[in-house]
Amino acid sequence: MKFNKAIKNLFIVLFSTLLISACSTAKKANVDTANDVYTGTDTVEFLAKGVPDRIFFATNKSSLTTASRDTLRKQATWMRKNKNVTVTVEGHADERGTREYNLALGERRANAAKDYLMTYGVSGKRISVISYGKERPVNPASSPLAWSQNRRSVTVKAN
Amino acid sequence: MKKIIFTLLLYILSWNNTHALITVDITRGNLDPLPIAVSPLHVDSESEKIPSFETSTLGEEISKIIEKNFKSTGLFNPLKKASFVQKPDIAHLKPRFEDWRLIKAQALVTGKLLIKNNKLKVEFRLWDLTAAKEMVALSFTTTPNNWRRVAHIISDKIYERLTGESGYFDTRIAFVSETGPKNQRIKKLALMDQDGFNTKYLTLGNELVLTPRFNPTNQLVTYLSYFKNMPRVYLLDIETGIQEVVGNFPGMTFAPRFSPDGKKIIMSFAKDGNSDIYSMDLETRVVEQITKHPSIDTSPSYSPDGKYITFNSDRSGLQQIYVMRSDGTQVKRITHGSGLYGTPVWSPRGDLIAFTKVRKGRFYIGVMRSDGTGERLLTENFYQEAPSWSPNGRVLIFYRETKSDSKGKGFSAKLWSIDITGYNERRLKTETDASDPSWSSLLSK
């Protein structure tokens, strides 16, 4: 009986340890990324109050998430209000792809953002694009978190 | 009966003699490298003094370069000079074969040099010690400052004679020199001899530069520059230092390479975010669009006969390698294995395509036949890519990056080479970190 209890206790300890560790990893993933796209606020800067400057992408993808569209609509509204502002959209990739493909991927990401800004009423003449491929990481670490922060397009005020 | 056998044996021996007894098989990893003795070249006592270097040790220095070249192939085992049994000048006239065989050498290189009227005259001989005969004898004259190249040319001649393949020692590597922290890398175009000497920097590092590639005559380099924040393909004349933009494209051009005849540059052009492959004739300036597809098409490389182009595309959804005719017709996907494929480069021999493969978060350099069959992965690592062929199609040079910690520390980029046998992986020493290597053709043909 005593022996049984000891085993039972051991199981409780083991189980709770597993539960805690499972919680901590799940929590971390939830905070930082969803479906391979960074959702956190680290590294994000602002073009104006409430107007984030960047959006994030999934590995090898250039499609816009709901959150990205929301950010770009805010940028478009801000640009429509500030008619003299011109911007450069910088497209970036993480370090886990070949250099030349990443240049093309960065270009595609920057243009995805530009196209969306244009559908919300910003003239294409006010938006230039440039791809940096994997050349300008914002987070220099070699970790999934850093890579998700580096897969980005950043709208930068050009004038 | 006995007599017949004897005659036959004699016949075989003499036949072998005319074709040399020693040969080196380079088609597989060589676990038993050929023992070779490289005698210091004898310096003629009438040689003039040259201000830029020590004449008296020049013969020794040249022999050391030859030894280093041989050792780097993994096919030869240069023997220690301490065990050498004959003086260089005497050995060069006629070696005592049995004495050299005693130190287990199978081949012997001897030579002499003379500097007179500011000319360097070099003569060398390769001896087959087993057959007790001379295999090659050559002499040439050049300016004394070219002495390192002399050592490389001698190495090539010997490699050629012993392996039956052309060498790759009298060559240079164009690459990108890297310094500074990972998120603010300073990159310069650089050039060095194949053995890491004579490094020259071709740009100052004011703008980002990437992916330099030699033209077939090694006088020009095409590369990507972010000059004035406009990423475009450029052309640089190494001799004059003159740089020019290639074409007049209203967007990013990148991933350039020369056609095998050197007349065209093939590259990617990103129009409204979509990268397709274009070529430009350098003389007529005529631009031709070769692929037209809403996916990414990049990293084009011609076959050596110029009839085909291999390239990288994600038209299937993920990065794969394709081959098409050089006019853009008959596009055919050639990679079907699991994982992503990039950076295809056609071998100068035409038989193989080298590539980078990404699978389960690991990076591989590999080769396959140009129809995609016979894939062989040569090396696996955390990150490596961008293979470039040695001119004889036997060795690949590529770059490898290391993992960095949360602050970006631990990051490095280095040049490595590996034989297509999968053996003989080695790091090339560079003054700074380095990436994007391009191997020239033989400088002297």
List the helices and strands and how they pair.
The complex is a heterodimer of chains A (159) and B (445).
Chain A: H1 2-32, E1 33-34, E2 37-38, E3 46-48, E4 51-52, E5 54-56, H2 66-81, E6 87-92, H3 99-119, E7 127-133, H4 144-150, E8 152-157
Helix pairs in contact in A: 2-3
Chain B: H1 2-18, E1 34-38, E2 42-43, H2 58-73, E3 76-78, H3 88-93, H4 97-102, E4 107-116, E5 119-128, E6 133-142, H5 147-163, E7 172-179, E8 186-193, E9 200-201, E10 209-214, E11 220-225, E12 232-237, E13 243-245, E14 253-258, E15 264-271, E16 274-281, E17 287-289, E18 297-302, E19 308-313, E20 320-325, E21 332-333, E22 340-346, E23 352-359, E24 362-369, E25 376-381, E26 383-389, E27 395-401, E28 413-419, E29 426-428, E30 433-439
Parallel strand pairs in B: 1-3, 1-4, 2-4
Antiparallel strand pairs in B: 4-5, 5-6, 7-8, 7-30, 8-9, 10-11, 11-12, 12-13, 14-15, 15-16, 16-17, 18-19, 19-20, 20-21, 22-23, 23-24, 24-25, 26-27, 27-28, 28-29
Helix pairs in contact in B: 2-5
Structural class of chain A: alpha+beta
Question: What share of residues are in beta strands of chain A?
Answer: 15-25%
What is the chain-wise order of helices and strands of chain A? HEEEEEHEHEHE
The outline of chain A comes out as: globular
Helicity range of the residues of chain B? 10-25%
Question: What about the largest sheet of chain A?
Answer: 4 strands, mixed
Helix fraction of chain A, binned, reads 40-55%
Q: Oligomer, anyone?
A: heterodimer
Number of strands of chain A: 8
Which CATH-level-2 architecture of the largest domain in chain B? Answer: 6 Propeller
Main beta-sheet strand count, sense and barrel state of chain B: 6 strands, mixed
Counting DSSP H or I runs of 4 or more residues, the number of helices of chain A is 4
Shape of chain B: globular
Distance between the termini of chain B: 50 Å
Q: Provide the CATH top-level class of the largest domain in chain B.
A: Mainly Beta
- Per the CATH scheme, the topology name of the largest domain in chain B is Neuraminidase
